[in-house]
Specification:
With about 325 residues, this protein is an all-alpha fold. It contains eleven helices and no strands. It is flat and about 65 Å long. The relative contact order is 0.11.
């Protein structure tokens, strides 16, 4: 399907994949043969090359992160071309590749963010202290991005305008026997308790880390749990308050103008908070490296603050909507 955003996404994915293959090839050699004590020509070439690769990936992975939002925007913009589609939920359901692409983009967005955090810490050390860790992470990221690119070709290449797809009301129905239906069927009251509880735990553990410089793993785990709980709660009960309808569980309609495009803010704060929280945990094993003993705690403190601010913004938007709307889902604490 010829559409400017589709062409941009495909070209960007191909370019990112090629550059990641190039980086992965040198990453493979770095993981096997990197020896800072060696003065061989090969080691010197690797040292020079890693500066170039870090600079390339620093830009490429930012585009990889942004491509998630472009993909969601494109899927939403294409819905009017398919019979039955009301939003991105229907567009993604046109063929079997739509939702796998979205899932891969979310996973790769988180991993790309963590890689950029690890790379920043490594670049501030004088002796390449995290070089093997960041290239090991790159080895995980490369095949996932390649899978995403293949699935993206399958999705856009398989779009047929005459295909009748399902609307979001059907896909996120309580009676639907799939993941979307299971998420929509999650009971609202317990999910609200879990969501706000996870956010409180994240805030408390973050404040503890900021005050005592301890509990990095706890904060990282809490922020990841909060990320999962928030994503599930969006489908379970949060969407219902924005739509003011007790049966409309679609997380994609939030992206539309009718709801002030609030979905983009919610998803950006959630992904940003999740990435920062995971970054804190990713740096924990390296806090005692001699060249990073003063650098990593400083980076972690800033990451914790970023995660807390973004999660707090997400929670305030949700709580503000729940309190300001006349719609009430729960009566007496029960759905």
């Amino acid at each position: 399907m010829m559409h400017p955003a589709v062409i941009a996404l495909v070209l960007t994915s191909v370019l990112i994949s090629l550059l990641l293959i190039y980086a992965g090839w040198y990453g493979y050699h770095i993981l096997r043969k990197w020896d800072l004590r060696s003065g061989s020509d090969f080691q010197l070439r690797l040292e020079r090359r890693t500066y170039l690769i870090s600079a390339i990936l620093g830009s490429v992975l930012v585009f990889q992160i942004l491509s998630l939002f472009l993909f969601i925007f494109t899927a939403d913009a294409l819905h009017s071309r398919f019979v039955g589609a009301m939003c991105a939920a229907g567009s993604l359901n046109v063929n079997p590749y739509g939702y796998p692409v979205l899932l891969l983009k979310i996973v790769n967005c988180l991993l790309a963010g963590v890689w950029l955090i690890v790379n920043r810490a490594d670049n501030r050390g004088y002796d390449y202290p995290l070089i093997k860790a960041k290239y090991a992470l790159l080895m995980l990221l490369v095949p996932l991005v390649l899978m995403e690119t293949v699935a993206l070709f399958g999705y856009f290449g398989g779009l047929q305008a005459n295909v009748i797809t399902s609307c979001c009301g059907s896909l996120f129905s309580l009676d639907k026997r799939n993941i979307a239906g299971d998420l929509a069927a999650l009971p609202a009251a317990p999910m609200a308790v879990l969501f706000f509880g996870a956010m409180v735990l994240t805030m408390v553990s973050g404040a503890w880390f900021r005050l005592k410089d301890r509990g990095g793993y706890l904060f990282s785990a809490a922020s990841f749990v909060a990320f999962i709980m928030a994503a599930a709660s969006l489908v379970s009960f949060i969407c219902l308050y924005f739509y003011e309808l007790p049966t409309h569980h679609c997380p994609f309609c939030l992206l539309q103008q009718e709801y002030g495009h609030v979905g983009y803010v919610l998803y950006a704060t959630l992904l940003g908070g999740g990435t920062a929280g995971l970054g804190v945990g990713a740096l924990m094993p390296f806090r005692n490296r001699s060249s990073l003993v003063r650098i990593i705690p400083s980076i972690q403190r800033r990451l914790v603050l970023v995660a807390m601010v973004l999660y707090l913004l997400f929670t305030l938007i949700v709580a503000g909507k729940m309190l300001s709307t006349p719609f009430r889902l729960m009566v007496g604490g029960l759905p």
